[in-house]
Amino acid sequence: MIYVVFVEPETPGNIGFLARTMKNFGLSDLVLINPCEIENDAYYKAMHAKEVITNRRTYDSLQDFIENEGIDFTVGTTGEAGGSYNVPRIAVTPEQFAEALNVTGKIAVVFGREGDGLTNKEISLCDVVVSIPTHEDYPILNISHAAAIVFYELFKKEKSYPVEELEEASTIEKNGLLDCMDEIIEKLGYPEHKSKNASLVFRRIIGRAFISGREAHTLKGTLRRINKRLIEK
Amino acid sequence: MIYVVFVEPETPGNIGFLARTMKNFGLSDLVLINPCEIENDAYYKAMHAKEVITNRRTYDSLQDFIENEGIDFTVGTTGEAGGSYNVPRIAVTPEQFAEALNVTGKIAVVFGREGDGLTNKEISLCDVVVSIPTHEDYPILNISHAAAIVFYELFKKEKSYPVEELEEASTIEKNGLLDCMDEIIEKLGYPEHKSKNASLVFRRIIGRAFISGREAHTLKGTLRRINKRLIEK
């Protein structure tokens, strides 16, 4: 179970955006620590995730929340990853965090104030700190953007298979394509090194193209037809 | 060079959030297609990235932009990844996209309207479509959240791997390939809808494969030779 905790939010709109991105990645348990008033803008920005806000829990402090809910694992987020001299803020990336997180139990992902992030005391309550790699010119992300990235990494990890039902062509289907193209190339009367190169280039392109099963089928149909017409010559 | 294109934005605040997340990940070239009025809220939400908005370019249509700026590679984003039956919207994940993109040249990452995304016509102008895996209950991300995730993947990749020298094939070289393949397909005696589909699939595959200039050259040689042999029949 994953709780999303927002410490002392100052802007209702950010609560709304956070709720929306939570639902986008299948999360529903929002906890607000000593928040600003929840105005209409929070619900407006949440769009189709209003119930995430309605079902929120509220606590006075991060420590209260951790103790009362019996949290097993607390993850802080920070825009200021410390160097080695600032041990509490030594951070992992969202990717490292998602890879490492195979914990069952109650997990809290904690986001700090819009202006000041989490205090050192709050950071010290965390088991791990996550920091998103950003450009040095402007390293501070909006809180809902940071959340979207962390949730995306968690979701990506949890779902072993990404976009839609779309099945990538199997190795067998792809090899079928390559074999077919090789037969065509053989008939072109190339010197051997040129044949080899043409075959290699086609193989690389197919390898890089994330070709779907359906596309492999269509392309193979085309290649077969080409091959047949070359034979009939 | 990476352009970030927002097609027909309706909300100044979203333009601001987009500008902020661009700067967070080291991007600065914003293009707005037929935008709403840029009100104060855009600059307010941009925080320390106001200059991204000030330096924006504006065009009347996506096609105008692509042609006028001489874009080499156009990447669409969509919340509605097609299944295998909707070829134009077959999509790769942000991670797959970032992994494949090791190119120089002018690249455009295109985000659609807040409500309706990109039209089919706009999608058809794209070489590849990126879709973020999300939860089925609420798959539609706020545009700046989607952008943050795509930029994050690009930035992550760029940081960990040096950009290759390998120059991506220019649009002209790629179009040459597509034309050549279309000539071949025409000779295959397919009914029209099959010809169209075969052509589209080839275009998609070439679009997604991040083909280098050298590879385009080799593949074109092969296609030309095939075409010639088909003529001689």
TrEMBL record, chains A, B:
InterPro entries named among the record's database cross-references: Alpha/beta_knot_MTases, RNA_MeTrfase_TrmJ/LasT, SpoU_MeTrfase, tRNA_m1G_MTases_N
One Pfam family here: SpoU_methylase
Domain tRNA/rRNA methyltransferase SpoU type per the UniProt entry, residue ranges: 2-152
Keyword set, alphabetical order: Methyltransferase, S-adenosyl-L-methionine, Transferase
CDD domains: SpoU-like_TrmJ
Any GO MF annotation of the entry: RNA binding
GO biological process: tRNA nucleoside ribose methylation
GO cellular component terms listed in the entry, alphabetical order: cytosol
Cross-referenced SUPFAM superfamilies: alpha/beta knot
Gene3D superfamilies in the cross-refs: 3.40.1280.10
Top-rank taxon: Archaea
UniProt protein name: RNA methyltransferase, TrmH family, group 1
Source organism: Methanobacterium paludis (strain DSM 25820 / JCM 18151 / SWAN1)
